[in-house]
Amino acid sequence: MNGDHSKLGEPARSILEGEYSNMLSCIRCGLCLTSCPTYVLSGHEAEGPRGRVAMARALVEGKVDLTPDLIAHEQNCLVCDACTAVCPAGVSMDPIQVALRTAIEPNINAERPAHIKGLRKFVFRRLFADMRVFRLLVRSIVLYQRTGLQWIARRSGILKLLRLDEPEALLPAKIPTKFVVPNGEVHPSKNGRGDRSTGFFAGCVMSTAMADVDRATVRVCQKAGWNVSETAGQGCCGALNAHGGDLEGMKTLAKRNIEAFEKEGGAPIVINSAGCGAMLKDYAHHFRNDEEWAERAKKFSDRVKDVTELVEPDDFEFRGSVERTVTYQEPCHLVHAQKISKQPRALLKAIPGLELREMEESSLCCGSAGVYNVTNPEESSQLQKRKLDNAKETGAETIATANPGCHMQLAGGIKNRGEATEVKHIVELLDEATGGKESG
Ligand code: SF4
Ligand code: SF4
Predict the structure, then answer these.
(1) Is 79 in the pocket of ligand 2 (CB under 6 A)?
(2) Whole domain around residue 74: which residue ranges?
(3) SS (HEC) of 36-91
(4) Do 201 and 165 share a structural domain?
(5) Is a pLDDT exceeding 60 seen at residue 440?
(6) CB burial string 267-295: b at 16+ within 10 A, e below
(7) Which residue owns the Cα nearest ligand 1 atom 3?
(8) What pTM was estimated for this model as a whole?
(9) Burial class of residue 94 in the structure, from the number of CB atoms within 10 Å of its CB (0-12 exposed, 13-18 middle, 19+ buried)
């Protein structure tokens, strides 16, 4: 990096300064170190939370320059929030990383080749900004999978040549052709408690590549006694923008979602993707200093509930049993960012016939972390292997999870290893145990 791009300019500095008090909370106790996946893998201070907070703080204080080393250590962070969950001083890593990545983005972007700049702009400002474009892209992936192009690409070696073989392997085996397009339709309660209503946040990946899980989520909520509205006007949550250094892009998406769900009063907003749920709950923090949006964002965030928070075991009438051994892998953004750990297990344990077997390090990141498996393939595959080894030790036939990134990361790894374990979202198991589509 040349000297011109080693200093923070404005407004970068003030964006980072917004998290300065958060950084100052760090008392350097080191309690977070052994929870941090990148520290566990490397043993390096700069690859742990304490080191990352110290580097960010030194950058705000003008004590260090923006060196390639500093950038690499910060970008190796999975933003998994495992450190946040155990920190006795209340340091919150996610907002520090969002501010830091946004602050240094202009310096990094200046060094990128033109085609990468163009690609980033397209992904963050067109693809995630417009669900019609997103759906078009997923439709072309469906065509790629179903016309034989995938078969040719995989055997020709072109994917390896373009270094796309690893991310391509993570594509779900068979993407559904029918997507969920939220249009305001209301799906009525199925257990007689029709007075409860919830707005469903469909997500971008979930409503397309994993649309079957979205449909199962709607059915499960109906069967738990909720009227479920597919709220019109919603879009992507903005998590990938925020963690990719595009805070403004995230805020644009957030405003659209806040406006869309305001039309439905104060009903809970249910979501089945841990990463998106954590982002929606963080809108309140990111708009806290915005006169026009602070209150609206706070009200919105307060309404957000992961599906495992919204529905309870007693809500269901289970039909038959699901004779299966299952282990649960905790998505970072559910257990660390949202502190939801008991509820998914309670739901799984309530399913007749299902045997829940706990794995070691259930809450250690699986290496997916948004696009971490694309940006940091080596560390990502180390974490993926560790997670799958731990799952295998339990002898379970199924790995249950609650986040699309983890789902694809685990399923992709299992396919590469030639194993037979299946990966399921918790709602898919609940749906099966309550009669599936027939009763939804
Ligand atoms: S646990 Fe919190 S206070 Fe202690 S070193 Fe880690 S970030 Fe700092
Ligand atoms: S967010 Fe995760 S990877 Fe990043 S410093 Fe904290 S524990 Fe480590």
Answers:
(1) yes
(2) 8-109
(3) CHHHHHHCCHHHCHHHHHHHHHHHHCCCCCCCHHHHHHHHCCCCCCHHHHHCCCCC
(4) no
(5) no
(6) bbbbbbbbbbbbbbbbbbbbbeeeeebee
(7) 26
(8) 0.92
(9) buried
